[in-house]
């Protein structure tokens, strides 16, 4: 799906939910728990973040959206909200802050060019993923993916065009094409943030102070110890549809060397996948359920992208 002059909108997204952290100590509490620099969550930018165990494994990955001072919305896959809430409750007792699952907030995916959206609103975020604007009745957040945004509000997106809808599968495919995976509960405590390319997406600040799991995350980065990475794979139609948690197999040795994190139907047939796969100098042929899958180039380089640079870029274009 390419950028278009129409506005395609999903129904409320099944792939996102919101955990709110609010109160006088909300920023200080979150600063000590996640990979993001909380000062970056401001009235123009919503950074990516990961919350980790002391061993550096991700409990969940999120985007941190701050709609107002002392209030933060952690946007993540709905299956992992309760997992992260339970994890954070172990630490929040020492802070003047509260945790609330916000079931009243509506998130809808939008696929549209800026030109098409100006017919509905003059308030548009900058073109960098993470940029957002207040539209009065809700918020427009630009996310990874070509011409992709998310509407956030307590009422449905007002920009819907009935003749140009966007299915949940379409949205998931756009996210896979962008190379961004949102952990589900079954994948919690399994991966370092770098294994889902989180530092390449600007989701790790290596310039902030301590947070839970920081020592392991930093050591893996500076010592180059990350041997598994997120890959975009394409699969043909199979008798058994691939699922999150299924194995990616080295077809030559018949060994499991990867795990699927995201699945969406292809544009016309087959499947689009994101999987964490062990990396080799010369990658072997890969298969899922016995069928060969092919690797697709990611739209970003596998290298560190400092979120500080993203924030500075937003400030320059504001």
From TrEMBL:
It comes from the Bacteria. GO terms for biological process: iron-sulfur cluster assembly. Signal peptide: none annotated. InterPro entries: YgfZ/GCV_T_CS, YgfZ/GcvT. This is Glycine cleavage T protein. It comes from Zymobacter palmae. The lineage of its organism: Bacteria, Pseudomonadati, Pseudomonadota, Gammaproteobacteria, Oceanospirillales.
